Queue: 2 jobs
Job 1
Amino acid sequence: MLMCLRVLPARVTRNFSRCCSNYVARMRFINKLKEDEGACLTALESGNIFLYHTLAPLLRKTQQGVFQLPLLPFKDLEGILNRLGKDGSMVKDSVLITCTEQNRALFCLDVGELDQQAVEKECGGNFVDLRKAFFTLRGEEAPLVARGQALLRWHQGNGFCSASGKPTTRNQAGSQRVCHSNGLIYYPKMSPVIITLVSDGKRCLLARQASFPRGMFSALAGFCDMGETLEETLRREVAEEVGLEVVSVRYSGSQHWPFPQSSFMVACHATVSPGNTQVDVDHEELEEARWFTLEEIRAALKLRTPPRNPRDQPPTIWVPPSYAIAHKLIREWVDDQELHYDGK
Ligand SMILES: NC(=O)C1=CN([C@@H]2O[C@H](COP(=O)(O)OP(=O)(O)OC[C@H]3O[C@@H](n4cnc5c(N)ncnc54)[C@H](OP(=O)(O)O)[C@@H]3O)[C@@H](O)[C@H]2O)C=CC1
Ligand SMILES: [Mg+2]
């Protein structure tokens, strides 16, 4: 089986080396904050914090109608908490997310124990469901809001050691929890998932689960089993879900996916031989899986919002939106087809 990594284009490597020293300094600074409690607290005091209420992020709408993630300086948030009758030192429970290019640390905090509407009024925003926030925010803010929720969720679910049953305590950055009774260290966890777009050279295979919105088809996905390589997961999932045997694999990219909980999505293109394309769907997992032509995929990509079909009409197919790595795989497949086969 082939596994080839894409080589970065020269333009990207040039940009990389230009910003490299700043990037290296920033990564080392973040790492220091995870290891040095005092440095992390100092960074928090001069940093910014964004908020969640029971894991729903706070968003603010600008006068131009654009949704943004409000970033609150430490002192402002301390003041807000004091006004709402809470000890301002609660800000110190914030979890480190990242650092801006100016080395300004960014944290997040869940204020679920406060009255939601009172916080919204104080901060001039609204707490919204993560899915809505993720789909509404632009650029860098969507992955930030997903990362924040994933970390806060992990802390909320790991307050006790699974070996001793005793409470665990977190470090200042929130990058780990420790059980002091036995020294066990817990780190935030993600589940590795392989997502693959299978092609037979001319068509690609998309599938839908019964829980997907009407008409939506996506690439095949599945969780890695313990001890498997990514290639083994990919071959097994394709065999299990659609009864096909993969002959080659090419890496495309990866993505943290917060729904329903943290998955680490690894995206690959895969091919089956043109003589081995008979789909045998596992209906326990999938409602439907079928081959699509380039024309059908082009039409699906043109739909920006889910089509509104009358109930009795067969649904027009559409594919996941651009922030989902499934979309990237599908677009890359179309580009490859256009480059190699279109018009032939
Ligand atoms: N970003 C993107 O573009 C896309 C992301 N995805 C994501 O990929 C993930 C996996 O896809 P899916 O097809 O559902 O996976 P699978 O085909 O592996 O099927 C899911 C089932 O696997 C079992 N399972 C095994 N390990 C785990 C685990 N660590 N966590 C949860 N369930 C597990 C569960 O079964 P049981 O309940 O019986 O135990 C679950 O119902 C989903 O979270 C989905 O949101 C999917 C498509 C596109
Ligand atoms: Mg699956």
Job 2
Amino acid sequence: MRTAQQPATRHWRHAVAPGGLPLAGHALLMARKPLQFLASLPAHGDLVELRLGPRPVYLPCHPELIQQVLVNARVYDTGGPVKEKAKPILGNGLITSDWADHRRQRRLVQPAFHTARIAKYAEVMERECEAESTAWTARRPIDVSHEMLALTARVTARALFSTNMAPHAVAEIQHCLPIVVEGAYRQAIDPTGLLAKLPLAANRRFDDALARLNQLIDRMIDDYRASDDGDRGDVLSALFAAQDDETGGTMSDQEIHDQVMTLLLAGIETTASALTWAWFLLGRNPRAEAALHAEVDEVLGGRAPAYADVPRLAYTQRVFSEALRLFPPAWLFTRTTTETTELGGRRLPPASDVLISPYVLHRDPALFPRPESFDPDRWLPERAKEVTRGSYLPFGGGSRKCIGDVFGMTEATLALAAIAGRWRMRPIPGTKIRPRPQMSLTAGPLRMIPEPR
Ligand code: HEM
């Protein structure tokens, strides 16, 4: 296994990805089978160069090189064509802001994710997870993907806006978000940039859904301004109250709007996808499923889970961590160099694109023995300390590490425990699932049968 501590003089292996075509480079391989193609690259080198059309892009495959990219956020900034296409959707929030402004924004948004506030959001999670787990009919098949998306949309919407407009917000978000996520992804991978301008029905649906989400957020902001409730304990209140320690500045309504849109797009589908994969994996691994049931029965004794139970639901958390390893929702993200720099002994000119793929890292046999096997006990404390530092990155790393990591882990732990307390999720024989590498690494529809326990 690789060690994080390497001598300063270490020799990094560079490679050009095989299979490139004269003009398209590796664009076709990336379009057809991105997961298989990317996961084959660490065998060739620590830093692999590929070409998407005429542009070279770099995939660091060694955890140490990936850390260098993630911690040096000034030189490896978010940028490039993907970010430019995201701006009309997300505005200028945490995901789209440049390095310098990101630091200010992060200082302002971070308090909304403070532990004390997560405890408050957990009340929403408890209620919604309980409602989800009591809504199903015994032995009537459900689409797990659909249910998990509906659940995380309700949790996130109600944690963001705890007003009496919440039911309306939930319905709007559930309708609009999947359309916006799908459209944003289509635009992100369109190399011509022309697709979004064509008079297609899909584009009209996307424009309509985005306009409705924007209106919803504006209404929530107006409603907050018009009332004098003070701190409602929701994310929106924390964003209004935020004051920058360094400058004393606060956020304008437009800035708050952009942060809310960013949180909706970053927080709902990611958590839902990982939960769906967790159910899929449990359905194929009866021993892990039995261990989950045993823990939930012991800790909860038949009652619904509460925030205070989360630390004792250790196996449940390991199940989710392992689902995040095998199917990291953020399977690929990018950085762009702002100046000439050197990575693994290779000179990168300004505006070089660097790909970070947790999926590739998490399935590298040099980092995770038997990477394909679902083994939640990899994350037992005594075994987890053997895992090479920097090789597990479901939430990214450095100053742009996911701000919702604790929120997402808490929500997923409560959801798994609430549902596993009541139901055994039986797979439907013959169901075939292939990971869909889109904005998140989704499973697509996944039908399973809830059987009372
Ligand atoms: C299991 C669920 C989740 C996963 C796997 C996940 C993954 C990630 C990753 C990998 C990044 C870093 C991307 C990069 O470096 O370019 C990120 C950023 C972010 N995530 Fe999450 N996320 C999850 C849940 C959430 C939730 C629940 C929220 C909010 C409620 C959220 C909000 C954000 C935001 C705002 C950012 C940008 C942070 C910044 O740049 O400062 N995420 N997420």
